[in-house]
Write the structure tokens for this entry.
Amino acid sequence: MVEMEFKDSSNRRRKVFVLLGVVLALVAGGAAFYLSSQGTAQAVEVPMKTVVVAVNDIPARVVLDSGMLAQREVADDPSVAQAVDDPALLIGRLTGVSIYANQPVTPNLLATNAAGAEFSILSPTETVSPDSPAWRAVSVMVPKERAVGGHVEIGQRLDFFATIKIETLVPNKDGKLESLPDAVSGNQPGLSTKLSWEDVEILAKDDDADIYVLKVELHQAEEISHMMAAKDLGFELDFSFALRPDGDSRPVARGGYGETIERIFEQYNLPVPRILDLDTYPQPGAEPSPFVPTP
């Protein structure tokens, strides 16, 4: 009799545990359903914004047209605060960097501020302020053989050299300028080349005319304009480019730069040509004369 009562008590406890488990499962399922419903309701309430995106990848330096752009609804958050919402505002604008497919288009991705413009003096991240440099655009003509074979692309940066023919002039008794005798001046007419402007950006170019548009500060623009005018008046002057590696914006201490023919002779100890006496010069087939170093 005692044994039967013990078995009945055990069965009742098992039933209680099973029932308790069922209740807990129902509570957990209800809680999960409630939280899921709350999450869905919150997602629906996220504010949306209409923006213009690129349909496909768009390279840099490309003029935008309507087929490259589309409007999309995206979640309104700070990442699209500056995104353009009307495609008409972008048609004819030039891209400054690559724009990827489905990427919202923002003004800082563009190279120009006006439709139809071929270039912009300011970069997408630059603005005009009281303390900003007085950037200007100037054009120069440089033959391909002195412009890295013409392989200078828009957006690249270069160093700019000027080569000038220098002659020592003094006024004569009539007040006119004449060359000073070499023996008196210690100088002679010749070419002088100097690194004149460094880390200059190419804004545009005309390959057929060998014309390059450069971004320079206002004072540099004044210097270049003066030298171009002097060349037009017959002053012997030429320009040349040296292309910089991408990302190299290091300043150059120009004080140690500048070349003339005699400086190059001295630097590399070039042998100086001399007149040969053909009467005493060894002829073909004759025994070679001993080497005599050039003084």
Notes: The first strand starts at residue 48 and ends at 54. Residues 204 and 213 are 5 Å apart (CA to CA).
